[in-house]
What we know:
The chain is of the alpha+beta class.
Amino acid sequence: MQATYQQKQNPGELLRFYEEVRAYTMTLCEPLETEDYIPQPSVDVSPPKWNIAHTTWFFEEMILKKFSENYRVYDENFGFLFNSYYNSIGNRTRRDNRGDLSRPTVKEVFSYRKYVDEQMRRLLARDLTEEIKELIILGLNHEQQHQELFLTDLKYTLSINPLYPVYRENFALVEKRVEKIESESNAFIEINEGIYEIGFAGSGFHFDNELGRHKVFLHDFSIGKNLVTNAEYLEFIADGGYENFRFWHAEGWDWVNQNEVNSPLYWEKRDGELMNYTFSGLRKLKLDAPVCHVSFYEAAAFAEWKGMRLPTEFEWEIASGKFDWGLRWEWTNSAYLPFPNFTKPPGAVGEYNGKFMINQMVLRGASVATPPNHSRKTYRNFFHPHLRWQFNGIRLAK
């Protein structure tokens, strides 16, 4: 299990946190062959090589270049190749070209990672200011985000291979938790109307988009105790859910028809049997497992078909202590917008969240691919409504 780090702990804890997070990324790489690090079948996914290099670049660019005396960058070209979206830092390679880079080689990227790790260990041996500590902690949480992206991106890349390759036969982190049976799927939790406080409070790490703790008024509502299962979603499909425009937002209906969508991502029929692509290859769909890899459009259409709706992110946060979560990122019916008094930090760090607060929907919770100790009830994930390669699921409200 990975550790979390609180600023008041001793300096050795920060080094331990650094080593554990960086080591976990390497653990995720163990099943891969060199050829697995390169492909990029979609603009929305990044190759493993790029994810590994980008997280390393973050420590070099945001920390070592600023706070390590006489630091020499590993390669002047890497800033252009592995910058993701930080306009204040400079130009970068196009997002859809990340898989076209045969050079630097995978071997060179791992050498880069080793070089930066050595420099970071030297920095961590010093007495650090709170500013440096906070940036290191941000960098580690950033890497944890990319550990999840590493898995979700890789799953999509492997899934388009007609051989349906196995990433890891008994990938316990994902497979055992993914297939947890959801019992009492029709149970609902009642929440009384009232004024509630939303947003992060207390000590410990949090992203800036969780700040601006504020009060909201909520009417009486009910929220599902459990996630929607594959069996329940199959009922929606069997009842013509993908053929009836009445269940869909207009934009979602266009998406369904333009992309010929008729089931969640990774479902496939083989010899009359419904199969699901997993990290362990193509396997029989488990009906009692929570449905996964659905877009916001699909989640909202399913809720409409059930005569219900998706919860708002505020309802989800207030109710989250009354049900288990962490199997799926759960779509909410809330647009990704700033909380009151939200401010962007100065410099490149200010580009981390705020500039994406447009045309995206909020997901709450965590998923089976989220690294241990990288979730909390105020965490605000966000994606465009058509995306479904993440481990996204559905919890209903009414």
